[in-house]
Each structure stands twice: as C-alpha cells, then as structure tokens.
Amino acid sequence: MIYTLEPQSKVNLKATGIDRILQNGRNILSVVIGEVILARGIGINGDIVDSPLNRSAALMDIQTQFKKYEPRLKIHKVTYLTDHQRGTLKPIMEVSIIE
Fold first, then answer.
1. Contact between 30 and 45 (Cβ < 8 Å)
2. Which residues pair with 92 in a beta bridge?
C-alpha cells in the first residue's frame, strides 16, 4: 500500500504499528538536525533548509535520514510544493512500508 507523507507539527505519543512508522517518517521531514533532544542526528540538514530551492540535495538528505532512522519506509516518489517568494520546498512523499 502507498502512503503520502508530508511535514507536520502534531505528534501522537500513543501511535502504534503502521501509524507509528508513518509518523516517524513525517517527523524526519518536520525537524532540523539538532532539534530533537535525545536524537540530535534526526531531521533535515539545516544548511539545505536555508538553501534556496535545492531539490537534489534535499532528496539525498531525506533518503539518508530514512535509511538511518526509519528503514521500514521505502520511498517511491518525492514531489515538492514550491514557494518561490520564500524560496522554500515542502516535500510530499509517496512511501510504502517494508515488512
């Protein structure tokens, strides 16, 4: 089954099973490295976040983070919502769960 992930700010501390795996993926997309107190390495590289519209670097960083922190998710497709005025990219990912 294919699921869609995008950054979010809500965290369900009671999430289990598939919901927990998907939430882990959303968390990776939602934080910058260094923001999570007991897991300082998780998140998107802040240098990429501050770079204007760098899609390839963002994709490589996301793939690396998923392999390290949530290897149960397989990335199938990444698209970006682009805000040219702010110079930002919002990744929208299609993933499946590896069982």
1. no
2. 79
For residues 2 and 11, give the distance between their C-alpha atoms in angstroms, rounded to a whole number: 21
Sheet containing 3-5: which strands, arranged edge to edge?
Answer: 3-5, 88-97, 73-83
CA angle (39 as vertex; 16, 78 as ends), nearest 5: 65
Q: State the sign of the Cα–Cα–Cα–Cα dihedral 58, 98, 37, 12.
A: positive
pLDDT digits (tens, 9 = 90+) for 2-59: 999 998 878 899 999 999 999 999 999 888 888 888 888 888 777 765 555 566 777 7
Alpha helices (runs of H) in 6-93, residue ranges in sequence order? 17-30, 46-49, 55-69
Give the burial class of 62: count Cβ atoms within 10 A of its Cβ; 0-12 exposed, 13-18 middle, 19 or more buried.
Answer: buried
